[in-house]
Design brief:
The chain is of the alpha/beta class. Helix content is 33%, strand content 15%.
Length: 236
């Protein structure tokens, strides 16, 4: 089965402003985010990518554009099911003011019980994203064979929810996972179980290229700061 390269979009104008963007239109990458996106082709240069899939939101499409420019044969496909969580009435509001909302503690401590007013529940968000990845895994394997690698650009909460699923973690634990803007998370899917190869990595990815020896069991882990709804702004 395929290896999925999950890219969180680069730092956006909403990240910089401390705003929960959600699905608000017109949210683009800021200057730092554009630099991060420009570096992505080099970071993934060692990988043979058979497909590129993106959330329909502008900041994700902008993040993948330099990669598409560097690889003219790589066609972008849009997938609505990996779009940002629908935060409903919370969309466009400052995170600082949302911290006083009683629901925020539920989002942080018991997200499987959280549903955003006028939006969707976090359970529904995870379910649609997991279904999308399963469908794309089947499609990629059918079209390109076992062992193919593809890239998917999405959002912080979506990536964290997909990682939780891959690790067999309950959604209530997903706030322990962190993914910085333009970080790369790699999951290799097999018939019996997924394997998390990278989590929120912003470094070199040459080691993800196919090699003769099987992957070792060692993995580095880094303690993340307290999570925020929407994935947080990450490091400037």
């Amino acid at each position: 089965m395929p290896t999925l390269i999950l890219v969180r979009h680069g730092r956006s104008t909403a990240n910089t402003a401390g705003v929960l963007a959600g699905r608000t239109p017109g949210v683009s990458l800021d200057e730092r985010g554009a630099e991060q996106a420009a570096a992505l082709p080099g970071r993934l240069a060692a990988l043979s990518l058979v497909a590129a899939v993106s959330s329909p939101l502008q900041r994700c499409r902008e993040t993948l554009q330099p990669l598409l420019d560097a690889r003219p044969g790589l066609v972008l496909r849009t997938e609505d099911r990996i779009s940002e969580c629908d935060y409903g009435d919370w969309s466009g509001r400052k995170l600082a003011e949302l911290s006083d909302e009683p629901l925020m503690s539920v989002v942080q401590q018991h997200p499987s019980a959280a549903a955003f007013p006028g939006g969707e529940s976090m359970r529904a968000m995870q379910a649609r994203a997991v279904e999308a990845v399963r469908d794309w895994n089947s499609r990629i394997e059918t079209e390109h064979g076992d062992g193919a690698t593809y890239v998917m650009c999405s959002h912080g909460d979506i990536i964290k929810a997909l990682v939780a699923d891959a690790l067999g973690m309950h959604l209530d634990l997903f706030q322990r996972i962190h993914a910085d803007p333009c970080s790369v998370t790699a999951i290799r899917y097999t018939r019996l179980r997924p394997f998390l190869l990278r989590l929120g990595d912003t470094g070199d990815f040459a080691s993800l290229a196919p090699r003769e020896q099987p992957l070792g069991a060692d993995a580095a882990a880094e303690e993340a700061t307290d999570a925020a709804v929407g994935g947080g702004a990450g490091a400037p």
